Amino acid sequence: MALLQDFEAIVGTANALTGDDVARWSKDWSGKYSGEPGVVLRPASTQEVSQIMALANEQRQSITPVSGHTGLVGGTYAPGGVLLSLDRMNTIHDINTSARTAVVDAGVILSSLHDAAEAEDLIFPLTFGARGSAMIGGVMSTNAGGSNVLRYGNTRDLVLGLEAVLADGRIVDLMTALHKDNSGLNLRQLLIGSEGTLGVITKAVVKLAPKPKAYATAMVATPTLEDALTLLNRTQDATGGAVEAFEYMPRNYIDVYMDRFEGAREPFEGPQDINIMVEVATTTDTDVNETLLEIMSDMMESGMVLDAAVAQNESQRREMWERREAAAELAFWRQPIVDTDIAFPLDLVPEFFERVGVAMAALDPDHEPNFVAHLGDGNIHYSVYPSRDDQDLMDKIIEAVEDIVADLGGSFSAEHGVGLSKLNTMRRRKDPVALDMMRKIKGALDPNGILNPGKLIPD
Amino acid sequence: MALLQDFEAIVGTANALTGDDVARWSKDWSGKYSGEPGVVLRPASTQEVSQIMALANEQRQSITPVSGHTGLVGGTYAPGGVLLSLDRMNTIHDINTSARTAVVDAGVILSSLHDAAEAEDLIFPLTFGARGSAMIGGVMSTNAGGSNVLRYGNTRDLVLGLEAVLADGRIVDLMTALHKDNSGLNLRQLLIGSEGTLGVITKAVVKLAPKPKAYATAMVATPTLEDALTLLNRTQDATGGAVEAFEYMPRNYIDVYMDRFEGAREPFEGPQDINIMVEVATTTDTDVNETLLEIMSDMMESGMVLDAAVAQNESQRREMWERREAAAELAFWRQPIVDTDIAFPLDLVPEFFERVGVAMAALDPDHEPNFVAHLGDGNIHYSVYPSRDDQDLMDKIIEAVEDIVADLGGSFSAEHGVGLSKLNTMRRRKDPVALDMMRKIKGALDPNGILNPGKLIPD
After folding, report:
1. In chain A, which residues have their Cβ closer than 8 Å to the Cβ of B448?
2. Cα separation of A35 and B244, whole Å?
3. CB-CB under 8 Å, B174 with A456
4. Same domain for B162 and B224?
5. Exposure pattern of A398-423 as b/e (b: 16+ CB <10 Å)?
6. In terms of DSSP H, where are the helices of A87-224?
């Protein structure tokens, strides 16, 4: 393949992998899209990415960018194709402590950025289970969410500037570190979340936040989801919006967790149906533990809280987080699974669960639900194991969930992205004028359709 | 004009204004772009906007959307052309107190939304001097900023969903109220700040915030800008980031204010060079007044604060705000003026003032500076009255400021938008690849170039 030789001339033969060397790029974390790429290119610089894209564009060769490969929607699936891996571009160029910004390459691992920020008494607040492998490039391309969105926003709220390579190899420089910048169309927000279909993000300026002086973390059992939302609102009001995480784990999730993880412990003495993990953080001298205890004991008296346990030390806090973050591994341990990534206005979450329960009882009475939710921002990872391996049944389940989502003004794609797995849903559910706009923008910026074709935007 | 009759058939003859009736649309707040439009269309609904655009597109008739007409950059300037005014579409459809969102038409006046939110013990935090006339449509089209950006973000951070009419009359429905939604390219953020070049924004879902229980507002004089930034950081740290406004007024601004406003009062007993207005707000029971007083008295002891006055009541607080908000009226009282709207990373603001002082002394020793700054977010409205009415001199002044902006990684267009007045700067200073991307997107979404042509994106 003459093209391979040309790619090798750009990145060096050692960084144009084929054959056995590409095995580790054969599937993402969902495990659902399995297939080896033909070539994996590992450029060392934006200039090399630019040369790769210019050549690919000339030769009409499709390119699929990949960084940590921890996606769950098949966004980096390209069997036999060319993957462009950003993993060698992994320098943290600058941590500016007075402006509270960092300049990072696309291949920087999320947890490395966490560590570098903490060393300066700052945090990069975006976090989720895959942080030890996920890289900034993928985080930005998918507009990743996670557990702290409630307090700090999604990825797109944390990125001030970026650099990207376009389909034709040109480099666009949007590397500003500004909080106010109205100089034309917002290309930054267009590229963030575009899943590699409009450009290859190579570098970013991200916001850092002050490191909290103290955390208060607790497990709380409530009789109803409405009571849980009351707990959220009261805690937000009492702390001035300092709730960092508000996670919901139902009974069946805890059961699976207990079953699968050695040394796993129940959150409470007796089993509870609604298990909430709440975390509050403060950068001031306020005693957030005290505040949280007061709210919980008050709600316990009025019967709105059934049980509660505050983490007494960092190791108890870690245990609470591990129980929640096990979800990333637990979700796909058993197949077949119908997994979703949906979001609602907060006040409609209880109605979703009521309605989906009724719908599932009708469709497949013997299904087993398995879900967790970032309840604080209305994002539910609602999954079910259907009672039988039947594609028709699974399609019906997805459509039933989608119907309720549409009815309640929710999103069928909250934080994992669209990739391949939600392409049909995009086609069915997204506003058709919006879809047409996306196709026109894609056509204008990548006229040969070489950047991650077949993802995000349905034909 | 047959086309006029067709427009009349859509909006009614009473709402297709010509002749004397269009006088009030002849200039924006800058006063620099004066010229009567040929026709002003005042549709009553999204459907009517859609019909207008479909007809205009068919007839290749340019359309310039306008709402409150309080812009400062000529973004709605269309002498002899067709303005599409959203002012009749002014319904606040919904204030959802539990989800803390509002659904509003593009023609809702900003202060009306403030009032409606406050009636529910909530706030819509975006605010600036023109709030009594500015409308949501223009606020969104220009991604307006203002004095509370520090705490709550720009317009784009406060909009969850929107509806817009495209150049060909199709309506795109992005009216979600979600905090997590990764369903395709982010068209919402593309339309926000597009200054009417990609679509006519007709409706929005905006975020509301809890109404603060208490404010602490003070005027503070510091010896240097560095000391002022220390005051900002200490206040942010002590309050957990609760600073809502941090405004800088230099001596010459106060002088002009004293001169022009009847009953105006000096902020301090003696004249000070650096006058800072700081406002902290709390939704909890914390005594923010106490916190602010402690910091100021501490800094006074170490010589970093020269004088300070805390507002003792709402009327004193209003006086402080009026002094700052007079800037909108004061900026253009005298001509010629070279006005800018620039932003920097916070830590580089003092360096900008040093360098611009040197540059101005060389270019025009007898100029009079007149500026205010949203110091807390690095946004400076740096203006000067040149010593003579000389276009060549004024061009040189602008270029000198731009050079320093580019050198310090700043923005030449922070919050007012580009419109006509910064088109040349866009051409000179914006990354050329970014400009090309904007042109391609514009061409893809408005192939006939009928939406607000000649604005925002230079040819």
Report:
1. none
2. 52
3. no
4. no
5. bebbbebbeebebbbbbbbbbbbbbb
6. 110-118, 136-141, 149-152, 155-158, 187-191
The answer to whether residue B440 sits within a structural domain is: no
User: Which of A437, A438, A457 should we substitute to test contact with B (largest number of B Cβ atoms within 10 Å)?
Assistant: A437
Chain A nearest-CA residue for B168: A433
Pair A101, A201 in one domain: yes
Q: What is the CATH number of the domain that holds B78?
A: 3.30.43.10
Q: Which domain holds residue B192?
A: 92-210
Above 80 in pLDDT, residue A332?
no
ipTM field: 0.96
CB pairs under 8 A between A and B: 256
Are B324 and B239 contained in the same domain?
A: yes
Supply the CATH number for residue B392's domain: 3.30.70.2740
Angle made by CA atoms B316, B321, B325, in degrees to the nearest 5: 150
pLDDT band with cut points at 50, 70 and 90 for residue B254: very high
Question: Does B284 score more than 90 pLDDT?
Answer: no
d(CA B52, CA B272): 55
Q: Is the pLDDT of residue B322 over 70?
A: yes
User: Does residue A454 lie within any of the structural domains?
Assistant: no
So what's the pLDDT on residue A1?
65
Q: What is the CATH number of the domain that holds B265?
A: 3.30.70.2190
Position A381 in a domain: yes
What span, in angstroms and rounded, lies between the C-alpha atoms of B111 and B131? 5
Number of domains in chain B: 4
The stretch B211-240 carries a mean pLDDT of: 95
Q: Which of B166, B171, B185 to mutate against chain A (most A CBs within 10 Å)?
A: B185
Does residue A386 sit within a domain?
Answer: yes
pLDDT at B227 over 70: yes
